[in-house]
Each structure stands twice: as C-alpha cells, then as structure tokens.
Amino acid sequence: MQQAPETPVFDPESIDGAVADHVERALADYLATRHAGMAEMAPSFGSAVGSLAEFVLGGGKRLRPTFAWWAWRGTGGAGAGEQADAVLRAVSALELIQACALVHDDLMDASAMRRGKPTVHVSFAARHRERGWLGESERFGAAAAILLGDLALAWADDMFAGSGVDPRRQADGQVPWRAMRAEMLAGQYLDVLTQAKGDESAEAALSVARMKTAAYTVERPLHLGAALAGAPEPTIAALRSFGADVGLAFQLRDDLLGMFGDTDVTGKPAGDDLREGKRTLLMSVGLANADAAGRTADAALLRGALGDDDLTTATVERARELLTDLGAVAELDRRIDELTGTALATLAAADLDAPAGKVLSDLAVAATRRAH
Asked: What is the pLDDT of residues 187-208, one digit of tens each?
C-alpha cells in the first residue's frame, strides 16, 4: 500500500504551480514501494514490473490528474488543505489507468512505437528473442503486455483506495471511478469492433472518440475531482458537460496529429492510424466527401491505405493531400473550434473557486489548439 511522503504538503497552493511534477513524485513513490515488494516476492516478475514503472514514468503530460486536481480545487478543495496530499495521490492513480489503456491499446493495434520507444509487447518480444527462450517471441510479448496492463489497472485501484482521502469523499469518488473504468474498456472494444466491421460512418467514429478518450481523459477526471470535494450535482453536471466537449475536441485534434503530426513530437510513425486501419472521423469525413463528389479513385486510395501494413511514405503523403483537399481537415478544425467554444461557455457559467476556472480554460485551449 502507498506510504505517505515523509514531508506532507498539505497546502493546496504549494501543489497548484506544478501539478504534473507532484503527480510524478506521487507515482514514483508508489511504484517504488510496489516494485520493491514484488521484487522481493518474485524477483523475475519484479524485473517485468520495473519495465512497467519505467513506462509509467517515461512520459506523458499528466492531463488526467491535472484536470481532476483543478476540479477539486475549484469546487471546495481550497478549504480542505489537510487533504491535499491524499487527493493528489488519489488523482495520480488516473495515470495507472492510462498506462493500462496504452499498453493494451498498443498490443491490440500492433503498434511498434510509443513515445519514441518500442511498445511494451515489442520490447518483451525482443527480450525473449535476445535471451533465446523457448516458444514464440511475439506470443510472449503479448502475454507480458496483457499482464502488465492488468497490473497497472489493479494498482490504480489500490493507489486510489489507499490514498488517504476522507472515506465519505472517497465513496463519492467511487461513482466516477467505476464508470470511467467501464467506459474506457467499452471504448477500446468499440474501436476494434469498428475496425473489424469496416464501419466508415461518422456516428461510429464519434462513439469511439467519446467512449475511448473523451470520457476517461477529461470528463470523468473532472467528475472525480469534484466528487472528492463534495461538489453539488449541478456543478458536477456542468464540469462533465465541459469535459465531454473538451475531451471529444482533444481526440479530434489527436486524430489530426496522427495523420499530420511530426513523429519527433508524437513519438509514433507518420500515418500510423492508417496502417492500423483506424476509422477516425477525419477518415470518415474524407471518404464521405470523396464519395459524394464522385471521386472514385481518391476514395479507393484512402480505403486501400486503411490497414495497409506496407504503407509507403508516398501514399501517406498522398492521403494527407486528399484529406485536406476533400475538406476533411477543415471540417475537423471547425468541429474542434465549436466544441471548445461550447465547453468554455459552460465552464464560465460553472462559478468555480479562483483560479480553477482560468486554469481549466487554459488547459482546454492547450489540449485542443491547432498544431499542424
């Protein structure tokens, strides 16, 4: 179980200026404790657990705990200073849910790179080959990724439960916590189902974006933070509405980055969504516009690129040109701007304690701004 830091912070304002740094500290403390215990109990598994800890601490913007922290601060957290460290540990556990999602998602998508490094299943398959172990390397890598992803999810529950948050508030927080876990898994399934069915509809793409990303990236973390502060239901509803719009806009921006982003920034190969056969809203709009305009050859090129493991750089570049020319990029930019505008209006009416409203507004703009 997580041990409290030797020097409690207690003062929320001492955390406000560097939430991500404090989250990093809380995660490092927790993972070090769990890793040590596991290494003592089962040294071989302890080595694998070390890889999970490196993955969790190896990158990420810590958006989820940051959104949760500021929802707590804006809905009563300022008056509960003695709970600041406990709440920080509770919301930091969101990063372990994120780790579970990423490790499993990379395996399901057969992704080779994450944050500029080999994905977990690829790394463990390489370890198997290098050491000349028996059996299939890829199967071993997949098994390791499944188990470590499961462990991250289990430890997320442990970290949240052992955070030290007031029991009544933690009971309130269990409502969004449980919903978020189920929604994340449902979104993952919808993603692979959409790919399997070849569903090109905008409705399917938006459903995946809402369930797989929007809910557990922004909406539920905000809900969690507000619940931990004992916020009234109207305030929670306003924060959830804000978060749902920002989360969807964030995913649509991520779809654009997946197609047009710099590999050095995204940490994934250009055109990876195409290779994985992702039916994103960007692709849905592009295909619908191509079909409507009778551009059969262009539609065929885009469809042919989806799920093509041997996709060339030239084809990726041509797909980018087509998606821009067909108006798909402009349509996503329009939707992102609209969603962000609606979200900010909802937030402004929520009457949060200062400076949470301003910080959450800035976070929303930063998460959805144009980067291509």
From this structure: 999 999 999 999 999 999 999 9
**CA–CA dist 238, 344 (Å, integer):** 11
3 within domain boundaries: no
Classify residue 295: in a domain, yes or no: yes
pTM score, two decimals? 0.93
The domain in which residue 239 lies consists of 12-368
User: What is the number of domains present in the chain?
Assistant: 1
Residue 9 pLDDT grade (very low, low, confident, very high; cuts 50, 70, 90): low
Q: What whole-number percentage of the chain has pLDDT above 70?
A: 95
Residue 264 lies in a domain: yes
**How many Cα neighbours within 13 Å face the side chain of 309?**
4
Asked if residue 103 is part of any domain, the answer here is yes
Backbone angles phi, psi at 117, to 5 degrees: -125, 160
Asked if residue 41 has pLDDT above 70, the reply is yes
Can you give the CATH number for the domain in which 135 is found? Answer: 1.10.600.10
